[in-house]
Design goal:
This protein is mainly α. It is 65% helix and 0% strand.
């Protein structure tokens, strides 16, 4: 044992005998359950925050505002109080998109405010990041669930719906940035940048089409099987279609090097 390992052992307490495979699996199952509980707690918290804010719960308690109520009752800052509202609103918008989708995509319990209906395994950070673009997230979710139902690519069970929701949130968080408002001073460079930006926008739209047919949770290999007929039908090279799909996922133009750019 080297010095680093020895120090780590001292930090966590006396050495324990090695676990058997069965014991290690039991510990892992407990850890997995705890992580699931953390994710579910975001859904529970969001549902209760939205209900409390809708009921203007601060008024009967003599507080002047939501922020004052949160500061007095829970000791949290004004900024944190409104971040919690962002989480609640983002999650409600996502659930609304799922509940309005194809029948098979609807969760078993669609009663507003229920924790089970709102549990998509999303972190507070992710929900805050898309709180200002919930329309875009909802539109992507609705379109992809409808496409999946139409093409019958997968049964829209709970794991599939959760995967679609989480990927839609990732897509919005990593969407390509808007082009700079001030063009380059060199006219030739400005014209070239315009051409490249227009091409990238077209490719991104193509990538969205590819994602409609081969959702992001499919590997490139599985996506190839699904996209081959589509690419043949529209006269597009399969490798270019896959590159466009990767670009729509990441927003990184390097995904197009050697294919479309």
């Amino acid at each position: 044992m080297d010095e680093h390992e020895h120090d780590q052992g001292d930090a966590v307490g006396p050495a324990r005998p090695p676990l058997t495979a069965a014991e290690a699996r039991e510990v892992t199952a407990g850890l997995r359950e705890a992580l699931d509980d953390v994710r579910r707690s975001v859904a529970v918290l969001a549902a209760r925050i939205r209900a409390a804010h809708a009921a203007r719960v601060w008024l009967p308690l003599g507080h002047g505002s939501w922020a004052a109520y949160c500061a007095a009752e829970f000791g949290i800052s004004r900024a944190q109080a409104y971040r919690l509202l962002d989480v609640a609103r983002a999650l409600a918008a996502i659930h609304g998109a799922v509940a309005a989708g194809p029948e098979k995509s609807r969760t078993r319990d669609t009663t507003p405010g229920t924790a089970a209906a709102l549990d998509y395994g999303l972190s507070q950070r992710a929900l805050i990041a898309v709180s200002g673009r919930t329309d875009a997230v909802a539109e992507i979710i609705t379109r992809r669930l409808t496409t999946l139902a139409h093409h019958g690519l997968q049964a829209l069970d709970d794991p599939t719906v959760r995967a679609v929701v989480r990927q839609a949130v990732r897509d919005v968080r990593t969407a390509p940035p808007l082009p700079p408002t001030e063009p380059p001073t060199d006219p030739a460079l400005a014209a070239l940048r315009t051409v490249v930006d227009d091409l990238a926008a077209t490719v991104h739209a193509l990538g969205e089409l590819m994602l409609d047919v081969a959702p992001a949770y499919l590997s490139d290999t599985d996506a190839s099987d699904v996209l081959a007929p589509l690419c043949a039908a529209i006269g597009e090279d399969l490798e270019a279609g896959l590159a466009a799909r990767r670009y729509a996922l990441s927003g990184d133009r390097r995904a197009l090097q050697g294919t479309l750019l």
